Amino acid sequence: MKHSIVALAIMSVGLGAAQAQDVVKLGNAAPLTGTISHLGKDLENGSRMAVDAINAQGGADIGGKKVKFELIGEDDQADPRTGTTVAQRLVDAGVKGVIGHLNSGTSIPASRIYDQGGVPQISPASTNPKLTQQKFPGVFRTIANDVQQGGALGNFAVKTLSARKVAIIDDRTSYGQGLADETEKAVKAAGAQVVAREFTTDKATDFNAILTKIRATAPDVVFFGGMDAQAGPMLRQIKQLGINTQFLTGDGGCSPEMIKLAGDAINSNTYCSMAGLPLDKMPGGAKFRADYKARFNGEVQLYAPYAYDAAMAIVKAMEKAGSVEPAKYLPELKTINFEGVTGNVAFDAQGDIKEGAVTMYQFKDGAWLAL
Question: What is the mean pLDDT of the chain?
């Protein structure tokens, strides 16, 4: 009888281990508190939709068995130091892949932690070129980078908006400054003049001093590299100061929240860019919008579709490799090629998305209209 109990105990431990292996942890890192928490939650929602879709089908077929997934969400607070702490926590938790971070300023330092821990990272939102230029083998992104986006913004300002004088402001983050730098290069290459280059922070709310300096230069276009939490109030203050100009910003401000924050200061002279196609023109966009609304009772902000595709890329690579272990599935991730929500998902040798599209938008009739 004693031997039977021992045998039963050993069998129970073995069964528990087998069951534990059938649930694989994936990490998600984004700002879930603070002024851009709406964007961070949007990113996490996209990752969660992918995990839920896989689990609803009974899991993924990996190495001859069904594997389900658990999403471990972490709040990086859009802060570089917190980002590295969160990254280490996810590595220590045994995640097999990470979707995130949102901000380039958190993704870049966190990527070193993931590299040291041997955990692949796919960012659905970080656009600074430096992220993939570090040449960490497990770092990817499902969204176009700032070289592509900044080039499109600069050309749009000069060739479409007929700007001869452009004022540029950035929030001094890796994302905002990086995008502003690339936009400045493109503006100058297109033959226009950068008449002012000012900076603020990603926590600021008062821009009157820098805008007063810019007003004296009479710019045709004011470009802001940063997020909607600053872009909206900035647009209000541009109106209050009587600066008659066109306003241009990147994907960080190309959100429904930007429209709310800007209030009556936003008009048809306001433009933004998004790295990617409009949601309605994405191959799986219409269904994704409907599913997102049904699941979360809200509208897609920006990055959810790219997070969904990032999570799916990890799982598809695991399926191809027949293993959830990063060392085994990473080679497959490098050659992955599938039709995602956002379009074709395939990475170049550096880890950037191939065929990264950029779309320009204009504010019209209360919403962003793709041009």
Answer: 93
Is residue 264 domain-resident?
Answer: yes
Nearest-angstrom CA–CA distance, 271 and 254:
8
Cα–Cα distance for residue pair 43/332, rounded to 1 Å: 24
CA 307 to chain centre: 7
For 163-215, what is each residue's pLDDT tens digit?
Answer: 999 999 999 999 999 999 999 999 999 999 999 999 999 999 999 999 999 99
167, 221 contact by CB (below 8 A): yes
Q: Is residue 62 one of the residues assigned to a domain?
A: yes
49 within 8 A of 295, measured Cβ to Cβ: yes
Residues 210 and 296 in one domain: no
Q: What is the CATH number of the domain that holds 47?
A: 3.40.50.2300
**Parallel/antiparallel/unpaired status of strands 344-345 and 338-339:** antiparallel
Give the domain extent around 319.
2-143+282-345
* Closest-CA residue to 127 (of 254, 230, 299): 254
What tens digit of pLDDT does each residue of 94-142 get? Answer: 999 999 999 999 999 999 999 999 999 999 999 999 999 999 999 999 9
Residue 26 inside a domain? The answer is yes
Encoded tokens for 158: 């000069």
Give the pTM.
0.84
Neighbours of 350 (CB within 10 A): 15
Give CA–CA dist 329/126, Å, rounded: 23
Kindly report, residue by residue over 39-74, the tens digit of the pLDDT. Answer: 999 999 999 999 999 999 999 999 999 999 999 999
Tokens in use for 228?
């909607």
pLDDT digits (tens, 9 = 90+) for 286-305: 999 999 999 999 999 999 99
Do 139 and 288 belong to one domain?
Answer: yes
pLDDT > 50? residue 2 = no
